[in-house]
Structure formats: C-alpha cells, structure tokens
Amino acid sequence: MDIPSQHVFEVLSGKGVEELHHANSIATACQFLRSKALMSRGTVERMGLAQTAQSSDDVDKRYSIWFDVFLDSVDIHARAGRANAYGPVLFVFDLALIDRNKTGRIWVTKENPTKWAGKSDEKRWFQGKKELNDDFVRGRFDQMIVLRHCGGSLPFGRHLKKIILDDPKLKTDENVNIYSMAVGALRLAMQDANIDVPIERRRCKAQCKCKAHWSGDDERLFKMFDP
Ligand SMILES: [Zn+2]
C-alpha cells in the first residue's frame, strides 16, 4: 500500500528521523554518484551498468521489488555493530529527500522481504499514515522506506550530506590500501558529477564485528570494494 510522501515525511520527522541511509558497494555507489541518483537494482541492470550481486536479488525479483529503491531510517552498521550486508558505502541523506512532489508515493515495509513468504500485503506493508504513526519505530531494521514507481531512479540533488565508508584495514596483493583505493574511486565519481560531499572514515564501536566480516572472505571483500 502506498502512502503520500508528505505523510511519510511528517510521521518520520515526528519520530525524530532526520536522515535516511542507503548502503551499497563501491562500484554501485560510483554509478549512483555519476548519475546523481539512487537507482534500483533493476534499473542499474537495465542500463547495462556494472553492479554488485546481492544475496537478496532473488527475493527482490520474486516479490517484484526489483525496480524499487530502499532506504533505512538508521545507520545499521553503527547500530548493530556489524557490517551492512548491502555494502561498505553508506549514503547519508537529509529527510527532506522524500519531502518533494517528484518522490511520489512511498511504501514502508513492516518486515524485511526475506521474511515475506506466505504473508499478506497487510503484513508486508504499512497501510496508511495512522498505522505508520502508531507502529513505525525509528531504528527497526525491518521497517524500510521503499520508493516504488519513481522510474527506478531517485535524483538526490543537494540532499546527499555525506558518505560514511568502512575501513577494512586491509591491503590488496599489490600492497594497495583498500580504503584509500575506495576513497579514490568515490572521489573520481564525484568529480565527474560535480558533487562535493565529505567522505567519513567509519568509526566503529569497540565490539563491532565488521573487521571479521571483511577479513574473513576475500571474495566478498573485493566484490564490495573493487571499483
Ligand atoms: Zn564496524
């Protein structure tokens, strides 16, 4: 069920949500910067642009959310103390990103689509402003803001505030620092698009499990960090 963007903006704003977040790989993040837009996985694929396969792709296709753009109300890495499965780049937008007419109507999930099997539409999506106001909890990971029917592409204009980037503290076989390589790729993409926002090196809590996530699997590391 879609909800007018103005209503979603008002409810989230009332609950203290000031920023929206979107995590992705370096390669996909560079494409977004060059396009100055967030794009759904389907749109990126259709345009023939490089993108990184995600474990949720099959679920996304099954539930026809392949052309949707997903946003979170919190920084999952910081909150959960683990790497974000969608990638090491976190785009941070101000909430006003969705306070615009061209965003159209917005959908909000009650549960992550990976848990949707056998559930009705009412169990999958918030049904309106009142329900959203009653039950939306800032920081509940399952409750994702989904932009559908926006042509699979959401121009972010001046709403991108910054990028937070994981530092795996690892080097390539050629002794290149992976964090520096990633920053270089993002900066180049920003230059091409005439964007200039800060890239922050992520500071983790002491118990954060992300280092183990990145050092434990070389294939995952390069899939996510390779520009
Ligand atoms: Zn961490």
TrEMBL record:
Protein name per the record: Uncharacterized protein
Species this chain originates from: Pseudomonas kielensis
